[in-house]
Amino acid sequence: MTEAFAAWRPRVLSVLRFIAGLLIIQHGLGKIFHFPALPAYANVQPMSLLGAAGFIELIGGALLILGLFTRLAAFILSGEMAFAYFIAHAPKDFHPLINGGTLAILYCFTCLYLATAGAGPWSVDAAMKRD
């Protein structure tokens, strides 16, 4: 059974990267293009801190989806998510479940893993032999 899982490891890495990119890009789309519409993102100004985060999520999420410049994009997104946690969530309460920061932590460490593991075989990076 271990061998069967090991054989799928590189492909599952590509799937993880792709799904993480899809989940992150939706935050950027909500902040920048207000789609999907979310009351918390209704008045985001492009030149604000939240607007800058939206651009990072939009571009970084797209790069993760494609698997292009994956290590760099994932590293920047990991830092952005750590920054988001400590700026927006941690001041509210120590516990992530209470302060709403669980997702930011999960994105942070998922992206940190992708920054170290790479894009996987189903990616532009792999097609261009950059990984």
Rg over CA atoms:
16 Å
Spans where pLDDT lies below 50 across 5 or more residues: none
- Strand composition percent: under 5%
Distance between the termini: 28 Å
* Biggest beta sheet attributes: none
Number of strands: 0
Q: Give the topology string: H per helix, E per strand.
A: HHHHHH
Mean pLDDT: 96
Global structural class: mainly alpha
Share in helix: over 70%
Gross morphology is: globular
- DSSP helical segment count: 6
- What is the number of domains? 1
Transmembrane segments: 12-29, 49-66, 103-124
InterPro entries: DoxX, DoxX-like_oxidoreductase
Membrane topology: Multi-pass membrane protein
Keywords: Cell membrane, Membrane, Transmembrane, Transmembrane helix
Give a description of the structure:
The chain has helices at 2-32, 49-66, 70-89, 96-99, 102-117, 124-127. The chain is mainly α and 131 residues long. It has one domain. The two termini are 28 Å apart. 30% of the residues are buried.
